[in-house]
Design goal:
There is one protein chain. This protein is an alpha/beta fold. The protein has two domains: about 170 residues, 3-Layer(aba) Sandwich (Rossmann fold); about 140 residues, Phosphofructokinase domain (Rossmann fold, 3-Layer(aba) Sandwich), CATH 3.40.50. The chain is built from eleven helices and eleven strands. A five-stranded mixed sheet has the order 3-2-1-4-5, with helices on both faces. A four-stranded parallel sheet has the order 7-8-6-9, with helices on both faces. Helix 1 links the parallel strand 1 and strand 2. Bound molecules: 6-O-phosphono-beta-D-fructofuranose. 6-O-phosphono-beta-D-fructofuranose binds next to loops. This is ATP-dependent 6-phosphofructokinase. Catalyzes the phosphorylation of D-fructose 6-phosphate to fructose 1,6-bisphosphate by ATP, the first committing step of glycolysis.
């Protein structure tokens, strides 16, 4: 059996650990061969791939990024796109199955290919942790760790200058990174896409922290929808999927907070730093286990499923289950954190 692996969508620390886990399990347990498609669906459509022997994955579990490259490309668009073309390409190159590692868009593409009869299994990936049907996605822990380290640094400079500091973290539709990084770093306010918060509430939390002699810290998700707007703040145009490029909500809030509270305020956008560099040990283990399990799924011909972590167990779920809903921060988790604000 010859298996193709691809990584697609935004990159994520842990992708290489998935690839290594899959290749090692495939070679050692099943005597499978592997190829890696370059740059996500683009490489699949163009039959642009290279062999992945055991030596190709040596020592890569600790490397950030993806040795395969990635892109935000649609499997069904372009001259070589669509199920028929991809099926013909797999046949021509004697590739018997495909492991698609990606987020919602990638897995939706994988699901459509499976519906057309192609042998595809999925591995969920996103630092945002917004995929349903799995407790966690790898990359989320690393993004949190990076965010907390950065926010701890913002706090010492904020304390020295008696300023209000705003840390803007990633999270397009959901506030998991803001919630976890904010809680871990002792934020006085956490603003997430799922919860509408008035400007007056934000000013009040900042004032309360300042009155206790603290330098207020606000952690905001890039996808937070401020009072008066219908959707997330965006001034950077759209990406190749037509989605708004987010980023800048912190800079938007800073002058408002400064004006209303009289506190000098600075905003920092952590941006893609959260997706870069080495994965944490937690993410390496999770990613390795998911990669190994994806190969077991191939061995069982469990097409149309993705591997998922539930508690400490790795299970298989239908791809559809992950695509039905976004995994949003539940209200009780936000209310729990809210007790600590101000
Ligand atoms: O992968 C998810 C994510 O990091 C979002 O949090 C963010 O909005 C988006 O990707 C940024 O995408 P890009 O790398 O295309 O700018």
């Amino acid at each position: 059996m010859r298996i193709g692996i691809m990584t697609s969508g935004g990159d994520c620390p842990g992708l290489n650990a998935v690839i290594r886990g899959a290749v090692l399990n495939g070679i050692k347990s099943y005597d499978y061969e592997f190829v890696g498609f370059r740059d996500g669906w683009r490489g699949v459509k163009d039959a642009d791939y290279f062999e992945l022997p055991r030596t190709a994955v040596r020592g890569i579990a600790k490397q950030g990024g993806t040795i395969l490259g990635t892109s935000r490309t649609n499997a069904f668009e372009g001259e070589n796109g669509g199920a028929e073309n991809i099926a013909a390409m797999l046949k021509e190159h004697q590739i018997d199955a495909l492991i698609a590692i990606g987020g919602e868009g990638t897995l939706a593409g994988a699901q459509r290919l499976c519906e057309a009869g192609l042998p595809v299994v999925g591995v969920p990936k996103t630092i945002d942790n917004d995929l349903d049907a799995t407790d966690y996605t790898f990359g989320f822990d690393t993004a949190n760790q990076i965010a907390v380290e950065a926010i701890d640094r913002l706090r010492t400079t904020g304390d020295s200058h008696h300023r209000c500091m705003i840390a803007e973290v990633m999270g397009r539709h959901v506030g998991w990174i803001a919630l976890h990084a904010g809680m871990a770093s002792g934020a006085h306010a956490i603003l997430i896409p799922e919860v509408s918060t008035t400007m007056e509430e934000i000013y009040q939390w900042v004032r309360e922290a300042h009155e206790r002699g603290r330098a207020p810290l606000v952690v905001v998700s890039e996808g937070f929808v401020p009072e008066g707007l219908d959707e997330a703040f965006s001034v950077r145009g759209v990406d190749s999927f037509g989605r708004a490029r987010l980023g800048g909500i912190g800079e938007m809030l800073a002058p408002l907070i400064e004006e209303q509270t009289g506190l000098e305020t600075r905003a920092t956008v952590l941006g893609h730093i959260q997706r870069g560099g080495v994965p944490t040990a937690f993410d390496r283990v999770l990613a390795t286990r998911l990669g190994m399990a994806a190969v077991d799924s191939v061995a069982d011909s469990a097409w149309g499923t993705m591997v998922a972590i539930h508690g400490t167990k790795v299970n298989r779920v239908p791809l559809r289950a992950a695509l039905n809903n976004l995994k949003r921060v539940p209200t009780d988790r936000y209310e729990e954190a809210r007790v600590l604000f101000g």
